Amino acid sequence: MKRDKIKQILTDLTEKEVLICAWVRTNRAQAQFGFLNVNDGSTLPNLQVVYDAKLENFQEISKFRVGVSVQIKGRVVLTPNMKQPLEVHADEIIMLGDCPETYPIQPKRHTREFLRDNAHLRARTNLFNAVFRIRSVAAMAVHSYFQERGYVYVHTPLITCADCEGSDQMFKITTLDVNNLPYTEDGKVDFSKDLFGKQAFITGSGQLHGETFAMAFGDIYTFGPTFRTENSNTKTHANEFWMIEPEMAFCDLEGLMDIEEEMLKYVCKYVLDRCPDEINFCDQFVEKGLKQKITDLLNSSFVRISHHDVIDLLKKAPVKWEFLPSYDDDIAKEHEKYITDYFHGPVFIKDWPKDIKAYYMKVNPDNKTVAAVDLVVPQAGELMGGSQREEKLDVLLKRMEEMGVEKDGIDWYLDTRRYGGCVHSGFGMGFERLIMYLTGIENIRDVIPYPRTPKNVQY
Amino acid sequence: MKRDKIKQILTDLTEKEVLICAWVRTNRAQAQFGFLNVNDGSTLPNLQVVYDAKLENFQEISKFRVGVSVQIKGRVVLTPNMKQPLEVHADEIIMLGDCPETYPIQPKRHTREFLRDNAHLRARTNLFNAVFRIRSVAAMAVHSYFQERGYVYVHTPLITCADCEGSDQMFKITTLDVNNLPYTEDGKVDFSKDLFGKQAFITGSGQLHGETFAMAFGDIYTFGPTFRTENSNTKTHANEFWMIEPEMAFCDLEGLMDIEEEMLKYVCKYVLDRCPDEINFCDQFVEKGLKQKITDLLNSSFVRISHHDVIDLLKKAPVKWEFLPSYDDDIAKEHEKYITDYFHGPVFIKDWPKDIKAYYMKVNPDNKTVAAVDLVVPQAGELMGGSQREEKLDVLLKRMEEMGVEKDGIDWYLDTRRYGGCVHSGFGMGFERLIMYLTGIENIRDVIPYPRTPKNVQY
Prior knowledge:
13 helices, homodimer, eight-stranded mixed sheet, alpha+beta, about 450 residues
């Protein structure tokens, strides 16, 4: 027997017989009748079910606690004059699974901290129902954007010896018995005995591997989990997160910004269209004005300005900075906020001083800056970071030497510059940063199903 | 200036001015004219470009080597009577990036082994262009199937201390200096000094976490990388692979099989519709009859039969088995082959002896078997494995005790049975197994961009 999903019932708005399986969110019982509010996870709103004393187990039903799973047979009745558009009049209600009074998720306000400590149950609250559905729909939006445009989705490896972020930022992995390690003659751990025959890591980026595939398919993207070992307890850092890294052959910095802007707008629109209840919920309970913020972004044309000109603006600004703006330095959060306020919208900051950026970025003709670009948006700050890549082998090698990057492990990567190299560009977008932007949630721990942060690997 | 993609040019079939950026696959130069076959990765077929001595750099062009990246301005000319539907008459051809004679990917047959040793270049061959595009499109098919049906995509954690496959199968991770480890008083490694404050692993399954989200959203799926430490050098084992793990509340074993069958057919049809060139290529050069095999699957109704009845069939079969069929045992590859041949199509084998299956599977009323199901398909063998889950807490606890599964680390998981538990089911599908089925490729190393196998973590 097929169950009817609440989302479908609320969409159809048709009077008919239905079979529902769901969980009880509230139960208001009176002497002769009662109301169950149930949710089956298919949509954010609950369904109101009316039951009355004609049901033979009426007494039993009226004692169903919050969290109980139930099967309900009944009829949809439209109620256009009530708060909700319809309700179900129950002909039969059966308890499928009981739930004790000690159930932690009660119909009241729980703190985010309490819910983090009940991460395996928090998706049963309205807030996390909204957040994790938006996360799912946004992931689909990302795939749809790239696949509709012919990009090839590449599963770059997570286990690796090469990494564009540097191995001091990577977790080491092993199959060796850590309490009984083999050693070489000079007293180091003998990784030749390990599964891969050498020390291996889990990756912080798929970019280098992605570039090799862009040289075959033209346009590619990655979308997968990424790891950093940072011992950092902030609202925006996690040790495991998901990242999207597109890479496009025959694409320069201007083309890159076009794609970033188009993609971000596409994803925002996709989520607005498909998650109206969830966005409204977050607008009401998480970030007032959320929907307007996203709509404004859709209607804006992103400003493009050089790092140099940003510093000029910051220096002229009538603001007492905590961090003094400098032509040679990164910009601080307070600067990002000023700039997005100044332009009333998202801003691409491009052409950064080369000494503070990665070795693989294209050196500009001035030999002082690189063709890198960060997208900063109102409230969320930096959302994407990308660059045109240095396609000239000799320049790239020189940059690697200057920055102390080992050539040995990534000689295969350098082949992209040896064999039919071309102008190409790519960017990275932290998926959690996007979800925080789309929901208004301020702590990264609340947009990841089971967050991993220092000292925290529960579940 | 926007480039025209070869896929679009071949689809439009329109005479017009175009700008192409691509790589040279072959170059046949004669005295007064020449032909470049170029590919930009947007599609499998090459584009033929005709150039003649009127171009001022004609002599230079005629020496362009295989692998060179080029920019071509020219006109599309339809050639309905030729082998290819159109060609481009070049007005301008510029070399973007040179390629030396030593370029490993020449227009000739390379062995799969040679190409594995050039994994960073092999996507530039027709074979891997086809395979990795099919992989990308199949991934999208999986997402589309579940998202269209309202499933929530859940990013279950990769770093974990809990795992449904057991920690002996998991990689250990650490941020400690392995050559200078801290020890506790009793001489064990002191993981309280590690980033997470205890020993952590990378996961072999997202099922347990997935189940907790199914109890909130009803229908969920995971799709992400998975790891096993198996020191196994076979054609079907890799230490890193991608897995899809859907989990459905209010769904029993029969419902599970319905979903598995519908999903597999959906994905096969999606790939057939969108990758005709790639499927034809694999049909011609990898597995003769591939397209027919997939079409047959689409038109078949999958057989459902119990493990017991399969053993009956095997025992009666006029075959001398290497492994004797047994009612208490797993079935061997030779058995799977016999069964799919016998039924001329995919077969669900269900109700397995409980002693050879996992603790979380639903114990059947006979108390001897569990409501588990494996889907075996012609040629590829087992493609999916799933089960109805044991939703009764007392039975589950007893099974855990019988099988020696520690309760401590997964008490949170048991809450799914304490708070509004319900009948639920899920399955796992190894994504590489699916791609091998869809391409005919027999070695898992050739369907993963950068495969990880014992002693092999190059790139």
